[in-house]
Amino acid sequence: MAEAFQPKKQDGCIVKMEGINKSFSGVQVLKNVDFNLKYGEVHALVGENGAGKSTLMNVLMGVLHPEQGKIIVNGEIQPQSYSINHALKTGVTMIPQELALVPAVSVAENIMMSHRPVNKSRILNKKEMNQRAQQYVDELNFDFDVTVRTDTLPIAYRQLVCIVKAIAEETKVIIMDEPTSSLSAEERVNLHKIIRKIVTKGTSVIYISHYIDEIFEISNRITVMRDGENVGTYETEKLDQRELVSMMVGEELLQTQNRLMGRIKSEAPLERDNETPALEVCDLKINQKTPPCSFKAYSGEVVGLAGLVGAGKTEITKAILGISKFESGQIRIKGEGTAIKNPIEAYQKGIAIIPEDRKLEGLCLLSSVEDNISLAPKYRKTISKLGVIQKKPLRRDVERSIEQLSIKVSGLRQRARRLSGGNQQKLVLAKALLTKPEILILDEPTRGIDVGAKGIIYELIRNLRDEGMCVIFCSSDVEEISLVCDRALILRDNKIVAELQAEECSVQNILNYAAGSEE
Amino acid sequence: MNELKKNKNSMAKEIFSKYGALVLIIAAMMVGTGIFQPVFFNTSNLMNLIINNNNVFLTGFGMTFVIMAGGIDLSVGSLAALSGMFAAMMLSSGVNAPATFIITIVLCYIVGMVSGWIVTISQIPPFVMTLGTMTIYRGFAVAINNGYTIPISLGDPFTKLGTGAILGIPAPICIIIVVFAIGAFLLSKTNIGRNIYAVGGNVEAAKISGINILSTNMFAYGMCAALAGLSGMILAARMYTGLPSACVGLETQAIAAVVLGGTSFTGGDGDILGTVLGVLLLAVMLNCMVLLSVPSWLQDVFQGLIIIVAVIYDKAAKAKK
């Protein structure tokens, strides 16, 4: 860290990645990817979920090891044993890397972690440490006190701490993975200012984001990834938004999307005024600060809850399910006011959920495919006698689910951990569907899964709707809202700011409401 | 779909790949010792091997339930001592044997359920909770007769629990077989058993799938405590005495057996057959060392070493899968 940084400017690139190949359990997620990053540029990396952006960055960070390919940092070919320690030593770091912060020590100590000032007898000079850390913070125009414990800061601030830390460590390459997803509009502007400031000092930034506007605002160059391939690297000035989107999405999915959209458009909106809604949320307040929110959802309808990350979608679904408590308001199922205290009662009332994070909340990763699909007790009770599970109907149902959702497994006893993200998500879906729900709540069901699996899930949702299920579809991926929803509610800061019918659900329209540029 | 059907019949294969190494080590140890000390293969030696370890078997089975549910129970040794003392006290105050047996085991089950209840509701680490109950139970075990033992009369039918036999098979062995069968059945074939795997595998996923975490944990800890109580009573019956200082360190052996059997220490993976092999490995090794007159301090060292090595091996093997 101490030695002066001298760029070797033969080709103007600090990072070059050549012919990177990587596969997970037989599925190739990076196919011969080339990527280069110039000194002092902001390079946007874009692509759909599952396009391989994160995998590529994890290779660059030394977290994942490619089967093939070269990594060249600052003109030096990195050895086979390239690891995260190499990456950090050569000055490559990733943000947010919340795990890189120690929660129970002060912000200053985190910032100065790798070069704490000590006196002659190697005792920590706290005063100097705080001063120097505060200097870095002030230089970047942040307003937080470095002497507080790190875990007392809100999450968004911890991300800023990571940035300060990276700068304090004289990092050459900062990878920012969705850095604005948890920031307010104001903080976002601030972050962009900081990025511009640090690139003038020679630091290079790789900026991963889903927000097209942001990418055009901040980046110098753009690399588009799709299905594990580098579709192309372009100067930002030479691209327009439409071209970028078509490159990101790809022809095949574009067709599926058009088909689904055509299907929605061809159906006239139904008159529902005389019908009892399957689910009605009345003046729900999550806590004292949040505004009340109300909406209705009917059987045979897909209602979208759209909004940026942190807009309050998950909080609403968790309140409906009785996972988290809420301040006031009422939830009515088929016109009946109910107080659902926990998920057990939610299932009894015919509600099932696909939680936001399949690994943390959806699956037992060490358990088998069969055990995961049959995880819900509501289903298991239907096939058991006196508490003993009947093997035959279980096998039959599990095999049927696997076929219905075309889940790719090597056997019923295969561990869930071994499956790809898309197949894992299908397990969670299969589990929920076996409980025969009347109301299905999906929270970010397509996050981080491949394009093919997405298409299957979209079509499945539409089919379930046609069979009369009431589906609540929460997503921060604005595009998919227009593909599956009959109606969309746009959330911003825990408030429903708009209700759009299918024909009004354009990406631009939703984004405008979600990001708050239009009232 | 055909591929899936083929996989159905590979259960035997799966069990072999899971436990093959363990079985081989046990077999190798037995053969090795048998060559040097043919007395090892005497029926009475093999019988005694199992009878003497009946408390490790039974508490190990109970521990499997708790560890599988993602918990741990350090109190089994103390509870075994307490249940032996309690049963001896009941008998000496004139309660008949069957009533003593049932009351003791039900009380143990209830005590266990309370532990499970507190662990779930208060969210304190089970390690801390049961460290506390471990001390509490030992305290009561000593208090029952001011630190003295309580004798059980030789002719009392209660002693049949330890010394009786059914069709020539000693009672403790019969009990182990029955408990094993019930435990394996509960864990693999019933709703409550599958709930235990789910809670241990991923408590958040279990909660969101509508599994009742509280009742699952109460059942797991209840089973563990009941089996600890049962093993305490068998010991008392075999010794004709309630011993307040009995079964010190039993929890260590039970946990070691479960972990040696390949059950994941964080829960959700493994089965009760593994625990049987884990106990056998510990027992056979100890017996070998006694027969080969290995000094007792070295026996302890080897036992500790094999636990560490086995778990490292298991972890490496699982990472490969």
Question: How far do the termini of chain B sit from each other?
Answer: 23 Å
What profile does the largest beta sheet of chain A have? 6 strands, mixed
Helix content of chain B: over 70%
* Major β-sheet annotation of chain B: 2 strands, antiparallel
Number of helices of chain A: 19
Classify the secondary structure makeup of chain A into a structural class.
Answer: alpha/beta
Describe the 3D structure.
The complex is a heterodimer of chains A (519) and B (321). Chain A is built from 19 helices and 22 strands. Chain A is an alpha/beta fold and 519 residues long. In chain A, a hairpin with a 2-residue loop joins β4 and β5. Chain B has a domain of 207 residues. Helix content of chain B is 75%, strand content 2%. Chain B has 15 helices and 4 strands. Chain B is globular, with a radius of gyration of 20 Å. Chains A and B meet through α11, α12, α14, β18 and α15 of A and α1, α10 and α11 of B.
